[in-house]
Amino acid sequence: MKTRDSQSSDVIIIGGGATGAGIARDCALRGLRVILVERHDIATGATGRNHGLLHSGARYAVTDAESARECISENQIRMKRIARHCVEPTNGLFITLPEDDLSFQATFIRACEEAGISAEAIDPQQARIIEPAVNPALIGAVKVPDGTVDPFRLTAANMLDAKEHGAVILTAHEVTGLIREGAAVCGVRVRNHLTGEIQALHAPVVVNAAGIWGQHIAEYADLRIRMFPAKGSLLIMDHRT
C-alpha cells in the first residue's frame, strides 16, 4: 500500500458539492488554510442532480417562516450579488385549481409579505400568458420572485475562487476514516482513486459536507445521523415558454 506524507491545514471539508464549495470559498477568503476532499468530481452528487430552482422561500412562507426568510435573504443579498452570473430571475407561479380553496390565496400572500417575499395575485388569464403550459383550469395565481440557478457553474466558480485564495482541492480522494485524539476529530485519512495512495490530512476543524453520504462519515466518529434520500418528480421541456 502506497502512502504519502501527511498534510496540515486549518480546516478540512469533506464533499465537493455546492455546500462544500461554498464553505471552502468562505474559509479561504478569511485567510484559513483549506483542504477540500471529494471522492469523485465536483457536483457529482445531489448538487448535479437537482432542479436548479432558486427558491424565493414562498413555498415555506405559511408553514416555516424562518426558512422562508432565510431563502429570500440568500436569494436577494448573497446569490444575486455574489454569483449573478449563475442565476436567472424567472419568477414563479403558485396556482389555485377549482378543487382548491381560493380564499387560502390571501393567507399565502400575507405569509409571504411577513417573510419579506413579494407576492402578487394576478388574473388567471395573465398567468396563462406568462406560462402557456399552465393548467388552463386555474382559478387563481400568485407571482413570486423565484429564479433558476446553474449548480454546476456555481460550484465550479466557488471552487476556482477558493483555489485562487489558497485552498487545496483534492478530487478522486475518498475519506476512509477519521483521525481522532480522544473524542476530538483532528483529521481524515483519504485514498486517491487514481493512484491508490493513502494520505493523512490533519486539521483542528473537519466539516462534513458529504450530503446524504454524510451519515457514513459521521459513523467514523461513532455518531449516528439518520438521513434518508427523498425522491421528487421533475417535468423537463425541450423549449422555453
From TrEMBL:
What Gene Ontology molecular function terms does this protein carry? glycerol-3-phosphate dehydrogenase (quinone) activity
Q: What is the reaction catalyzed?
A: a quinone + sn-glycerol 3-phosphate = dihydroxyacetone phosphate + a quinol
The superkingdom listed in its UniProt entry is Bacteria
Q: Which UniProt keywords apply?
A: FAD, Flavoprotein, Oxidoreductase
Q: Which residues form the FAD dependent oxidoreductase domain?
A: 10-239
Cofactor(s) needed for function: FAD
The record's GO CC annotations read: glycerol-3-phosphate dehydrogenase (FAD) complex
Please name the top-level EC class of this enzyme: oxidoreductase
Q: Name one GO biological process term.
A: glycerol-3-phosphate catabolic process
EC numbers:
1.1.5.3
What family is this protein classified in? Belongs to the FAD-dependent glycerol-3-phosphate dehydrogenase family.
Which PANTHER family did the record assign?
ANAEROBIC GLYCEROL-3-PHOSPHATE DEHYDROGENASE SUBUNIT A, GLYCEROL-3-PHOSPHATE DEHYDROGENASE
Protein's name according to its UniProt entry: Glycerol-3-phosphate dehydrogenase
Q: Which organism is the protein's source? A: Escherichia coli
